[in-house]
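Sequence and structure are no longer studied apart. To make this concrete, we show below a single chain and its fold as tokens.
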Amino acid sequence: MKKNYLKILFLTLITLPSMAQNSSPEQIVQQNLDYYNNRDIEGFMRCFSEDIVIYSFDDPKITASGLEEVRKLYTALFQNSPNLHSTIVNRIVFDNKVIDHESIVGRKGSADILELVLIYEVKNDKIYKITVIRK
């Protein structure tokens, strides 16, 4: 009986998602960025809370709200951007916020460099809010 319990416990632990509970906000955002750079929509989406909201800093209107809208937005981006890659120019971690200055290439097939500042807010090991500042 004890042997079966240990076997089940071991199998449970090795099949848990790769993002461990109680990860730091920086670890969660970095994992999200890694999934973004690999255009891995499933991994990317696991980093978000169910009530994820994305805002544009210049416009108080919501860009995307909820997992379904965010998935739709990024699925299209990943499909139309085979060479998509974001590089962190600078990162600031402040409490539950991670502020990344990113340099993005390959967005929608473009060779142009897009610079953004993204403010990620993390709660309960999930990103629940992103505010995007465009240059």
Observations:
- The mean pLDDT is 89.
- The two ends are 62 Å apart (CA to CA).
- Helices lie at 2-15, 25-37, 41-46, 66-79.
- The beta strands are 48-56, 59-65, 85-94, 97-105, 114-123, 126-134.
